[in-house]
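The records we work with from here on pair a chain with its fold. These numbers are not coordinates but entries in a learned vocabulary of local backbone shapes. To see the layout at work, look at the sequence and tokens printed below.
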Amino acid sequence: MIDPTVHIVGEGIHKDIQYPGKGPLPTFKKDTKAIFHFRTYVNDGHRTLLDDSRSWDEPFELVLGHEFQLTAWEQAVRSMRPGERAIFTCSAEKSIGYTKLSKTLRDIQKQKKDKDAVIRKSCCGSQTTGYDDLDKITGKQLIFEIDMLSIQQPGEYKKEVWTMSEKERYNLVSDLRQQGNQFFKQRNFESAEKCYAKALGILEQLGLKEQPNSEEWNAIEDLKIPLLLNYSQVKINQEEYLDAIKHLNTVLKRDPVNAKDEPFLMEDHGMLMRL
């Protein structure tokens, strides 16, 4: 008799349902978000534990349809219902990508606990991750125990920046600047700083795709100017003068002619340089 809890999700992925979950199988369109906890084991006869997301700050979130580095997870998630727990035994080929993913997740957790933590980066073709157990799993089968907490359809959650289109990112930059200005007027400098910093970060990412000094690259650099000025004003109010000088210098270097027509900018810069 065939066990109804055992399935073949795809080539090299064997699924064993522990708890069936609720409702019909969701529709998994592009940008569907799956939120789940996971445990990862080496299929070595002892089920050696590698990672347990419950020991971290929050569950894992996977947005489907964006060429996720571990394809086995995307295939596994597409077979699950909210509330379901299942164990996926994956071939060595289907487990490729987990080493890099696990290193990234561990590094993030390490830095959350200790901002000064030293993170080892692979370079010059080195396969060393800085984690002994991860360095030993190349070519081995892995077992993933996944607890599906929720599945959110596009439009039911706020999109992450990396999933946005270019137009959406530019619109977000404008919105963040306006939000930052409102926080500044309220003298909520911490929130204003976060808005300006996030907007500048998005523009930095957009600029990476363009050729330096091209028309598109220059347009992005020009968009940074008002944000850098706003950010500098925040830093002055926070009495973090070195940061303020750094950003004002960037503005002066980028647009020295128009900067001279901004008396408040020149006054702030001159005042800070005298401190």
Notes: Confidence is low (pLDDT under 50) at residues 259-266, 269-275. The beta strands are 6-10, 13-20, 33-42, 48-52, 60-63, 84-90, 142-152.
